[in-house]
Design goal:
The complex is a heterodimer of chains A (308) and B (502). Chain A has 308 residues and is mainly alpha-helical. Chain A has one domain (8-17, 27-307): ABC transporter involved in vitamin B12 uptake, BtuC (Orthogonal Bundle). Helix content of chain A is 74%, strand content 1%. Chain A contains 15 helices and 2 strands. Chain A has a two-stranded antiparallel sheet with strand order 1-2. In chain A, strand 1 (152-153) and strand 2 form a beta hairpin. The model of chain A has no long low-confidence stretch (mean pLDDT 88). Chain B folds into 3 domains: 2-232, P-loop containing nucleotide triphosphate hydrolases (Rossmann fold, 3-Layer(aba) Sandwich); 237-328 and 412-502, 3-Layer(aba) Sandwich (Rossmann fold), CATH 3.40.50; 342-409, no CATH class. Chain B is built from 17 helices and 20 strands. In chain B, the strands form 4 sheets. Chain B has a 6-stranded mixed β-sheet with strand order 6-7-8-3-9-10, sandwiched between helices. In chain B, strands 16-17-18-13-19-20 form a 6-stranded mixed β-sheet, with helices on both faces. Chain B is globular. Chain B starts with a strand and ends with a helix. Classes of the chains: A mainly alpha (308), B alpha/beta (502).
Chain lengths: 308, 502
């Protein structure tokens, strides 16, 4: 029982959904169809990478929705007319980095509550975008973004490959560098980390900064996926990211888990949409199922913390 | 209480202690730190459950599963640790869990304030019962706690070091109330390290040592010297390695150090090849001094030199540990489970933690296979391998892993708190040998421990700390538990005048 509980629930959920699909609609299980569904979930997948990073140092980041919205607005509203794509990308990454750094300084150095700080930052960013747009939807996303988004490498869409590569890079980064050891130490026991000489505050700041950067990347992919800008895009992503991270075996406030558990957590969400769509479930039904999965993750977390 | 036994995590805290409390009598409970006094009283107060033995009340056996059971049986306790809730008022604290209600079922705040005010006034305290606990001084809090404890309608009163934070005038007020309780036919248990109080108000004294009963005597038959002899009376075993040879040059020196604004300055030097102890009664500032070196506390004044480099004070709270590690100083915290080890992580991660900490975040993490294996074998850590989770090891092996972390990281000055807490006797002896080897190879160790015998056996020099300053320094070869206790207790008089003067 212990052993089984140590495997992230995401793998079980993924396996069950795959089985359902294989029994009910085996013809759906081909790379072309799946590729399109998985591609939709890539922005969430990249946001989750940042989320798992901060959750492993016992923090949380709920500002991702605001970051995505702001970047999406900046690119699609044409505030920088005629700006090159490189400029927009650098601007997006810088925005994410700055927001992450701010979060990190507040949580790591000022020791403010991570939930409140990041939630507040998110709200401020959303409000800022609404102020700029006065409620009207912005214009079109430059076509270049969509063009890249729609490319494929063989049968697999480029965004999916990009997601896998970024995930692998983060996984490697955490397992190979001193920073990865710091993250593990801080997540296991903050006091012990402090007394063994780990720069605890700096580790938390860096984790948040990286999470902000990843939110910026996620925003770019999200923006590329839609041809027309919106003032509502990405707002439900942070809570989904938390859910996928918990589903992936990263326990909130415990500092456990790797990169691939949450990765499959996100894939489970993708499969869930496939299953729901094939069974003809509408948007409200999908929302309910999504909520139930988050609930399941929370319950599972309760079981875990008691059994160990 | 008859034949009470209690063990914590495999270490026996009480080994069959019996004690009888008489009504109309004040019973002193004495013994060194860790003798089992507080544990015995916590069992009587229902905080801990005994592993064996029985509590008899008027001849009938009773069992207290929680503090409330004991309270209902008429046993009221003032604990050593302050147990008031800072965000509530004095009145709310005094009635916590037994709030009076109005006819409508709400809390009767008016009655609470009135009765709390009365209780405070009886103790001569001019405090508003509506004041938040967080706004009181430590001494005032202690007094509120006492008021809370002794104003209860109970027949047995336990006072666990109630005077630790009080000055002489307050102690006199307290003594008056203890005598009143005695005249009313109550039984009082009084725990204190202050000799004069024992002889002033107690009728009987029971001495505990290492969880065993040494004896119970009428106070009238005792002298302070005889009492100290009862508390000490243990033979030094051959647990300890040989002491070091003549020490080398100073590696760590502390000059005119004042832990707080009120404490007297002291100096201390730690030389190469030497193990120096900070001894004394518990909580007299030993820990506060050591932890102000790693930045946890802000010392009032002083100069610290480490291997000819000066350490600017105050040390930063966040980076102090790193800074000292960079200077070759390792700090080993007392609570290995909370502050020391990553229990869920491998032995390898625990040992390598300080090694990684020396490097930059973006550097590739070295595996340190050799270093970890060498450390584990030289410390004789018993584990299934470097991958075993530290939490699965025995206490002694956990402690060795913790020490190993600092030994592996090329540290040459160790500041160690409680090197053998909760460790069995075999592992203790091994840890003493490790520390001595470390010193012999050119290191220097500063040790802080509640176990005086350990300090005498292990160290070269002993500094007795009292009231945040060093009151006496002696070679460990000449030190006895008796003269350490004596140095600490006789410093009480001077400490008292310092307390009174403000």
């Amino acid at each position: 029982m212990r052993r089984l509980l140590r495997i992230p629930p995401a793998y079980y959920v993924f396996a069950v959904l795959l089985l359902i699909l294989w029994v009910a609609r085996p013809n759906m299980l081909n790379l072309n169809v799946m590729g399109i569904f998985v591609r939709q979930i890539v922005p969430l997948g990249i946001l989750v990478l940042g989320q798992l990073l901060v959750m492993r140092v016992r923090s949380i980041d709920l500002s991702g929705g605001g970051v995505i919205l702001l970047i999406n607005y900046t690119i699609s509203s044409g505030v920088f007319p005629g700006a090159s794509m490189i400029f927009l990308i650098v601007l997006a990454l810088a925005t994410g980095l700055a927001v992450g750094l701010f979060n990190g300084l507040m949580v790591g150095v000022r020791r403010a509550s991570a939930v409140i700080v990041t939630l507040a930052v998110g709200i401020v960013l959303v409000g800022f975008v609404q102020y700029l747009s006065s409620g009207k939807p912005p214009g079109d996303v430059p076509g270049m973004f969509g063009d890249i988004y729609n490319t494929k490498l063989g049968p697999v869409p480029t965004p999916v490959i990009f997601w896998v590569v970024v995930s692998a890079a983060l996984s490697l980064f955490l397992s190979r560098t001193v920073f990865g050891r710091y993250v593990t130490s801080v997540g296991e026991n903050v006091q012990a980390a402090h007394f063994s000489g780990v720069p605890v505050a700096r580790t938390v700041v860096l984790a948040h900064t990286l999470a902000g950067l990843l939110a910026g990347v996620s925003a770019l992919v999200q923006t590329a996926s839609i041809a027309v800008g919106s003032v509502r895009v990405g707002l439900d992503l942070p809570i989904l990211a938390v859910a996928a991270t918990i589903l992936g075996g990263v326990v909130f406030g415990r500092g456990e888990g790797g990169v691939w558990g949450p990765f499959f957590g996100v894939l489970s969400f993708a499969l869930l949409f496939v299953v729901m769509t094939t069974f003809g479930v509408d948007e409200p039904g999908k929302l309910i199922a999504q909520g139930l999965i988050i609930l399941l993750a929370a319950i599972f977390y309760g079981v875990r913390s008691r059994s160990s | 209480m008859s034949d009470i036994r209690k063990a914590f995590a495999g270490t026996a805290a009480l080994k069959g202690v019996s004690i009888a409390l008489q009504s109309g009598s004040v019973h002193a409970l004495m013994g060194e730190n860790g003798a089992g006094k507080s544990t015995l009283m916590k069992i009587l107060a229902g905080v801990h459950q005994p592993d064996g033995g029985a509590i008899l009340r008027d001849g009938r056996q009773v069992a207290f599963h929680r503090p409330k059971d004991a309270l209902q049986a008429g046993i009221s306790t003032v604990f050593q640790e302050l147990s008031l809730l800072p965000n509530l008022t004095i009145a709310e604290n005094m009635f916590l869990g037994r709030e009076p209600t109005t006819a409508f079922g709400g809390v009767d705040h008016r009655r609470m304030r009135r009765e709390a005010g009365k209780a405070l006034a009886e103790l001569g305290l001019a405090l508003d019962p509506g004041t938040l606990i967080s706004r009181l001084s430590i001494a005032e809090r202690q007094f509120v706690e006492i008021a809370h404890g002794i104003m209860t309608d109970a027949s047995v009163f336990i006072l666990d070091e109630p005077t630790a934070a009080l000055n002489a005038a307050d102690v006199e007020v307290l003594n008056r109330h203890i005598r009143r309780l005695k005249d009313e036919g109550k039984a009082v248990v009084y725990i204190s390290h202050r000799m004069d109080e024992i002889f002033a108000i107690c009728d009987t004294v029971t001495v505990l040592k290492d969880g065993e009963l040494v004896g119970t005597r009428p106070v009238a038959e005792m002298t302070p010297a005889a009492l100290i002899a009862m508390m000490v009376g243990r033979e030094l075993t051959d647990l300890f390695p040989q002491r070091g040879d003549a020490p080398g040059p100073a590696m760590l020196s502390v000059e005119d150090f004042r832990v707080t604004e009120r404490s007297r300055p002291f100096s201390l030097s730690l030389r190469r090849g030497e193990i120096v102890a900070l001894a004394g009664l518990e909580g007299q500032g030993q820990q506060r001094f050591v932890r102000s070196l790693v930045g946890q506390y802000h010392p009032f004044a002083g100069r610290v030199t480490i291997k000819d480099r000066s350490l600017p004070l105050p040390v930063s709270p966040g980076g102090g540990v790193r800074r000292l590690q960079a200077m070759g100083v390792g700090f080993v915290p007392e609570d290995r489970k909370e502050d020391g080890l990553f229990l869920g992580l491998s032995v390898a991660h625990n040992i390598a933690a300080a090694l990684h900490s020396k490097r930059s975040e973006l550097a590739l993490a070295a595996s340190y296979h050799r270093r970890i294996a060498d450390t584990m074998s030289s410390l004789a850590v018993k584990a299934s391998g470097p991958g075993a989770a530290v939490g699965t090891l025995s206490g002694g092996n956990q402690q060795k892993v913790l020490l190993g972390r600092y030994l592996a990281a090329d540290i040459d000055i160790l500041l160690v708190e409680e090197p053998t807490r909760g460790v069995d006797i075999g592992a203790k002896s091994e840890i003493y040998r490790l520390l001595r080897d470390f010193a012999r190879k050119g290191g220097a160790v500063l040790v802080l421990s509640r176990e005086t015998v350990e300090l005498i056996g292990l160290c070269d020099r002993i500094c007795v700390v009292h009231n945040d300053t060093i009151v006496k320094e002696m070679p460990a070869a000449d030190a006895t538990e008796h003269n350490i206790l004596d140095a600490a207790l006789s410093a009480n008089g001077t400490a008292r005048t310092i307390n009174d003067s403000h």
